Amino acid sequence: MNKFFPEIKKNFGFGCMRFPMKGGKVDLEQTRQMVDLFMESGFNFFDTAHGYLNGQSETALKECLTSRYPRESYVLSDKLTHGLFTKSPEGIRQFFDNQLQACGVDYFDFYMMHAQNGDFFKEFKECEAYETAFALKAEGKIRHVGISFHDRAEVLEQILSEYPQIELVIMQFNYADWEDAGVQSRLCYQTCERHNVPIAVMEPVKGGSLAHLPKEARDILDALTPGAAVKPSAASYAIRFAASFPNNIVVLSGVSSLEQMRDNLGFMKDFKPLSQEEFAAIDKVRGIFRSLGLIQCTACRYCTDGCPMNIPIPDLFADLNAKEVFHNWNSKWYYDVHVQQRGKAGDCIECGQCESVCPQKLPIIDLLKKVSKAFD
User: Fold this and answer.
1) Closest CA to 375 of 332, 337, 321, 342
2) Res. 291 pLDDT band, cuts 50 70 90
3) Which of 283, 311, 332 is a domain's end point?
4) Distance from C-alpha of 230 to C-alpha of 39, rounded to nearest angstrom
C-alpha cells in the first residue's frame, strides 16, 4: 500500500497526454479498452491536463472513465496550466470549474500547478494560484495539491521551502536524465526526499526514446535474459528503473495504444524492482549514450560565472545532447525554459571567457553556434 496516499492502489499510472487518435479525434473505443484493462489489472491513477490533446484528454476521460466507473474507484489528477486562465483567484476558480465539468467529476484527487519553473512560479505566486488551490482544498474540491516541475533543483528547493503544503511533485525522471545537467533528475529527486515529498514520475521512457535503443545498448539488456524466447522490452527496463526508487510512488506512462498498455501492465502488475545486475546493465547503457557524440560537459559551471551574456551554457549543451542523441520531443521546450530571462546560445559575443576556464577544454564558442542553429 502507498505510504503517502493509500488511495493510490499501485505504483503505475495512466498518463493521458498521448491517447490513441483517429482522424484528429481521440479514438474513444480503443481508449475505453485501455482504461478497462488498466482498471481490471488493479491500477487506478490517471493524470491529465486541459492542454493535453487540445482539450480532448479531459473530455475523453469523461467518456471512457468517469461516466463509467464509481468515483471512489479511481484517482484523478489535473493541472492549472500557464496561459489558459485569467491571472486572478476568480479566473483560476472559473478555469477550475470548467475542468471539473470537462472531466465529469465534482472534485480532483490531485491538482497540480503545471510546468513550474522559475518564471512560471513567480507568475503563479503573483496571481495567488497556490493560495487559491489550498482554498479549494479546504472546500473539499481538491484532495491534494502538488506541482509538475521542469527546472533546476535550486528552483524546486525554493518552491518546496516557500510552500511546504505541497504534497506531490510530478517530475521528469529516467535513467538517461539521472545525471543530466539540464534535467537534474538525481538532484531534484534528492530535493524531494529532503522535504519528504513523494514523486510521480513523468517521461520514464524519455518521450519514447528509451523504448528504441541502439543495437549495442539493446544487446546489453537482452543479455540479462539468456535463452528467453521473448525478451523484456527496452521500455520495461526504463519504467522499472524509475519505479525502483522508494520516493517515486507512481510512474506515469503515456501509452498510446492497447498494445503498449498490455506491455506495460505485463511487467508492472507484479512489479519487481531492478536487481543489482540490472542496475549495472543500465549503467552500461548510459555509457553507450555518453559515447554517441555527446558534448562532454560535466556541468561544473565555471563557464557561467563570468559570462557577460548570462548564457546557461551547460544546460544548453544538455538540451542539444537530448535532441541529437535521443531525438527527444521536448528538448526545444527545455531549451526555452533554460533561456527564460537568461541568454540564448545565439547571444554569445565570443569573448572567450568560458573557454579560458573550461576544465574539459571544450570549444564552447563553436558549440554554442551549433546549439543556436538547432534551437534559436
Assistant:
1) 332
2) confident
3) 283
4) 26
